[in-house]
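Changelog-linked ticket: farnesyl diphosphate example.
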Amino acid sequence: MRDLQHVAIIMDGNGRWAKERGLNRLRGHYAGVESLIEIVRTSSDLGIKYLTVYAFSTENWKRPLEEISGLFKLLISFVARELENLVQNNVKVGILGERSVLPEDVNRSIDKALESTKNCTGLSFNIALNYGGRAEILRAAKKFAAQCAQGEADAENFSENDFSKLMYTADIPDPDLIIRTGGERRLSNFLTWQSAYSELYVTDIYWPDFSPEEYEKALDDYRQRDRRFGGIK
Ligand code: FPP
């Protein structure tokens, strides 16, 4: 799609969706996976090149253990169930975040998804998992310091573009549009470095109710925006 390469989504409102129905919060996440599958498919059909979703933040470890392990189980079952479809639709899976502390079965499942889709050339679908924007910037700064100490980088001639290459998103352009469902008006440590000029779209709709039609509304809204990147027309 012209002028819109990268859409990023904060999939919020699963818990409230479940609560309104008198269900366990995990039921909301289950329903959220169904929305996610539809949005991946729609993104692919629309020719969007990059889709990044916030599945688990560095702050989400504060949630009850039952919910955390439920979310991880959901990711594993998502991969088991959807991998074949993703490959068939030429979707390349990527992970943004600190993987070293994730449970072993989660990492195994991720490795399988990365390996099976590594040659896919269609939609690049990135899952932010144990991801935090500030942690990512700090990690990049540490890498930079190490490179300087080794004489591999030169602080004087180091550009924003060079620094971007130290992020999890090294090969991914900055998001053009960030969508947040569930009504909160904040970025919650998502793509902190990359969101400098992203357009923001917030909807009160809870993530499990975020249909392809709602997605189209967000994309239509984006198309009306006048992006000047600090310049003038
Ligand atoms: C926010 O809703 C949502 C999350 C913390 C998890 C999002 C995860 C999924 C949609 C499914 C798992 C992902 C994959 C890739 C299979 P919330 O619980 O904060 O909702 P609330 O604000 O209403 O409580």
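Closing comment: Example verified and attached. Helices lie at 14-20, 25-46, 65-88, 104-117, 133-149, 160-164, 212-223. The two ends are 22 Å apart (CA to CA).
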